[in-house]
Design a protein that fits this description.
heterodimer; A: two-stranded antiparallel ribbon; 18 helices; disordered N terminus; B: mainly alpha; Four Helix Bundle (Hemerythrin (Met), subunit A); two-stranded antiparallel ribbon; elongated
């Protein structure tokens, strides 16, 4: 951005706090310090996205190792324990370090633009959320280097696998790393969600009523509510597990009166809403993309949103369908079975609305649309097998077989990941200012679509003929080999597709030969497309006054009274907040505290257990100081006076 | 221009869509989430309460451990602290700094008394001769009651402690000369948190303590 073109007012010195350890970097900061101290929702969103894409590759490599191990009977690519570690890390990484942060990246970047806000309600808290996510990812992957290696307990960490006495390796630290990284990631998600809820409820532009908000923003709101209500269950479950492992409590210790079953309940009370936390953002993205490429407004806008809310609400009442085989009794099992079947209705409503949107539309098959269509079809297959599982007798047969693996990968790759890739192809022109290469995009889609179906469709059959999941190897003579080999070949095709896709996304930020995108390359509908690409740091040069749903479309094609207007800029200009070091400092403090907690216990020469909390307390002090300084550093900031056409 | 800038920065609270300040919405969202934290802990306690009533073949009568008079006293103290908190919020809204200071001080003291009672209670339970209730055992036998009891009431105690530190922060701030009615909303958020922690105790006290005497 050309600073020279802007009339610039110096920050007022009086409002700045005089004594500061780390002064707030001002608007001229650039380079690495800019990225470390930024509180701009767009930059935070990009960092979320880039970190998540990195973890996507890490989790993908883990998946390919699993598939290599299963190439044929009795393979020895991985040992038994390595295999267990690999599927644990693959699951945890993909759920908490890939799909959730990729969704968070889109929430961060797009939601304020879609409601006409200049930033989220609490920009520094948003930065803290990012750094907590990054340290959570680091903590999880640090586990490889310490006693016992990474956790080998499955992504759900069922008791008593987490019991210290049953550890395969004496003093196994894997589960501890897993517990603390999940706590950090939970904190990151909670902070972000409080922020998004406040932003959507409170910072909409004038005229942006709730029922004019884009569907993606609605899904952001619903998912944020799901996160703040579902994450406490796992946070407490993990606290209890930490006490079990560290201080000898008996919550899940069946030898001393605890009930491992309780862990399953607490985990899935979180875990099932989590499924909707993963899929609803992708549904939001697809609900934005399909109308644009069908050149029609979304069919049944209100019903799509209402269905999303119902899915979110009912998501809290179906958790026990993950536990049908634990013997909960006939009444509980039947109730959860019926509720699970019911949840298919709002999901089906959404699918019919997308089809209704495309019906009679002028469909363009650009890459985002291909991914959206891939999403609908693949997600439907995952949904159908999901409805099958709601039936208790069928579920009892499918439990822990490859059929279940096929089911949730159809939902999470065919659903969530295709939806997120659709979002990248759709919005990267807005984020980078450059059009992506269509041919390469279509190649990525083809590779991913073929690879994905080759990998996971045979797993339905493998599960039906009895291949158990989470099992290191299989013997000759079951007839598993052929389909496993097809799946493995497919997984490498899928991996190549994803790798090219990630390369394409990252290179779009650097490749100057790509075509410039302009404001609205897709002739899209929502408010963010009225802004320049990439979006300026202040988002809106003038506050927009919203007159209709699909404001960008109405501005281009709608009647005059539906065109958005702009509030005049008053003589204060646009107030921009300064950057801050304190979110990063607070997150570093928390990271040190976690490391201190992980390594606080040791055995001294006489065989006594010694607890040393120095590092943990030091970390706690650092983050407390960070929070105090944060609250004292005051608003500060500077003012910009952009011209009206510079947005 | 810098005068105009200063003006804008002084009036930092933006106009919101609902008219409710952002921080207050944030606090309510957090409290909604915190309900689920305590809901999980209380459920855990209730689930295990009956299941694990026997120790080494003997029935555990937790009334042998509890000191209900002390806990009733500390409950009363915690509830009374809410009155001080409400008065502190009211005083800062009216700009009465002296009164705010005293009411904050009262809240802190009562919160601290509650915490002291809890520390005494925990110590007393762990070292009660013949009746030791630890995190993992009762009378030396493995047991779950101690686990759920200490983690639940300990989490609540942690909440009270955080609240006390927050209030101390306000008390210190009130002596810097910068505190004014413009801070009223922030104090009110602190008050929301404090009242919430009280309300949680109103649930914990009957469910964890009194119920042992009724059923």
């Amino acid at each position: 951005m050309a600073i020279e073109s802007l009339k610039y007012a110096s920050p007022d010195t009086e409002t700045k706090i005089e004594a500061k350890v780390f002064p707030r970097p001002s608007q001229h900061t650039a380079g690495i310090v800019d990225w470390l101290t930024t509180i701009d929702h767009k930059k935070i969103g990009l960092m979320y996205g880039m970190a998540a894409l990195f973890f996507l590759l890490v989790g993908g490599i883990e998946a390919l190792l699993i598939r290599s191990q299963l190439w044929s009977h009795n393979m020895e690519v991985l040992t038994n324990r390595e295999y267990n570690q690999m599927f644990t890390m693959h699951g945890t990484t993909m759920v908490f370090l890939v799909i959730m942060p990729l969704s968070a990246a889109f929430f961060n970047y797009l939601m304020p633009l879609q409601i006409g806000a200049r930033d989220v309600a609490f920009p520094r808290m948003n930065a803290l959320s990012l750094w907590c996510f990054v340290s959570g990812g680091i903590i999880l992957n640090l586990s490889w280097f310490f006693t016992g290696g990474s956790p080998a307990i499955g992504w759900f960490g069922y008791a008593p696998l987490t019991d210290t006495r049953f550890a395969e390796v004496l003093g196994d630290m894997g589960p501890d790393f897993w517990i603390f990284s999940l706590q950090m990631l939970g904190l990151a998600s909670l902070l972000a969600s409080f922020n998004f809820i406040t932003t959507i409820i409170n910072m909409r532009a004038p005229g942006m009523t709730m029922m004019r908000m884009p569907v993606f923003t609605w899904m952001t709101l619903i998912v944020s509510f799901l996160i703040i209500l579902a994450f406490p269950a796992i946070t407490i479950a993990l606290v209890e597990l930490m006490f079990d492992r560290t201080y000898g409590t008996n919550f899940y210790d069946f030898l001393e009166g605890g009930k491992p079953h309780l862990w399953q309940h607490l985990f899935w009370i979180f875990g099932h809403p989590e499924v909707y936390i993963l899929i609803l953002p992708a549904m939001g993205i697809v609900s934005e993309v399909i109308p644009v490429f069908s050149r029609k407004p979304l069919f049944g806008y209100g019903l799509v949103i209402f269905s999303g809310a119902i899915i979110g609400f009912m998501g809290f009442a179906v958790w026990s369908h993950h536990m049908f085989t634990t013997g909960m009794g006939v009444v509980a099992t039947s109730a959860f079975s019926i509720l699970t079947m019911l949840i298919a209705i709002p999901t089906g409503v959404k699918i019919f609305n997308w089809i209704g949107t495309m019906w009679d539309g002028r469909i363009r098959f650009d890459t985002p649309m291909l991914f959206a269509l891939g999403f609908i079809t693949m997600f439907m297959i995952g949904g159908f097998t999901g409805i099958m599982h709601s039936s208790v007798p069928i579920d009892a047969q499918h439990q822990d077989s490859y059929f279940v693996v096929a089911h949730f990968h159809y939902v999470l790759i065919g659903g969530a990941l295709f939806g997120l890739f659709c979002g990248f192809y759709f919005w990267l022109p807005k984020m980078t200012g450059r059009m992506l290469n269509e041919k390469l995009g279509k190649l990525v889609f083809t590779l991913m679509f073929i690879g994905f179906n080759l990998t996971f469709f045979p797993m339905h059959y493998l599960g039906m003929i009895g291949q158990p999941r989470r099992t290191h190897s299989y013997n000759e003579g079951h007839g598993f080999e052929t389909w496993n080999q097809i799946a493995t070949i497919g997984s490498f095709i899928l991996g190549i597709g994803i790798a090219i896709g990630v390369y394409q996304f990252v290179s779009a930020f650097f490749n100057k030969r790509l075509k410039p995108a302009g404001k609205n390359p897709w002739d899209a509908r929502t408010l963010e497309w009225t802004l320049s690409s990439p979006v300026k740091e202040y988002n809106f040069a003038r506050n927009p006054i919203i007159k209709a749903r699909d404001q960008a479309w109405e501005n281009n094609y709608g009647p005059k009274e539906n065109h958005s207007q702009k509030e005049p800029l008053d003589d204060h200009g646009v107030h921009m907040p300064d950057r801050s070091w304190y979110p990063l400092l607070t997150a570093i403090g928390l990271f040190v505290m976690v490391i201190g907690m992980l390594f606080h216990a040791s055995i001294d020469a006489s065989g006594e257990l010694v607890r040393n909390y120095t590092v943990a307390i030091a970390g706690g002090v650092v983050s407390t100081v960070g929070i105090i300084m944060w609250s004292l550093e005051g608003p500060a900031g500077y003012h910009l006076f952009p011209k009206e056409k510079e947005e | 221009m810098s005068d105009a800038a200063a003006h804008a920065l002084d009036h930092h609270e933006p106009v919101t869509s609902t008219g409710i300040p952002n921080k207050k919405v944030l606090m309510w969202a957090f409290l909604g989430s915190d309900c689920m934290f305590f809901g999980t802990l209380i459920s855990t306690h209730l689930i295990y309460r009956k299941i694990s009533a026997t120790v080494g073949g003997n029935f555990l009568d937790i009334r042998d451990v509890f000191d209900i008079e002390l806990t009733s006293f500390s409950t009363f103290i915690l509830l009374a602290s809410s009155l001080f908190m409400a008065l502190a919020v009211s005083a800062i809204h009216k700009g009465n700094l002296t009164s705010t200071r005293w009411m904050l001080f009262g809240t802190i003291i009562f919160g601290a008394i509650f915490l002291a009672c809890q520390v005494y209670e925990f110590t007393h339970f762990v070292y009660a001769p013949g009746n030791e209730l630890t995190l993992s055992s009762y009378r030396g036998e493995p047991h779950v009651f101690g686990s759920t009891f200490y983690v639940l009431t300990g989490t609540h105690g942690t909440h009270v402690a955080i609240g006390v530190f927050w209030l101390i922060g306000w008390l210190v701030y009130s002596f810097t000369g910068k505190m004014s009615t413009s801070d009223a909303m922030d104090v009110e958020c602190c008050g929301l948190y404090w009242h919430f922690v009280d309300i949680v105790w109103i649930i914990i006290f009957p469910v964890v303590y009194l119920m042992e005497y009724a059923f």
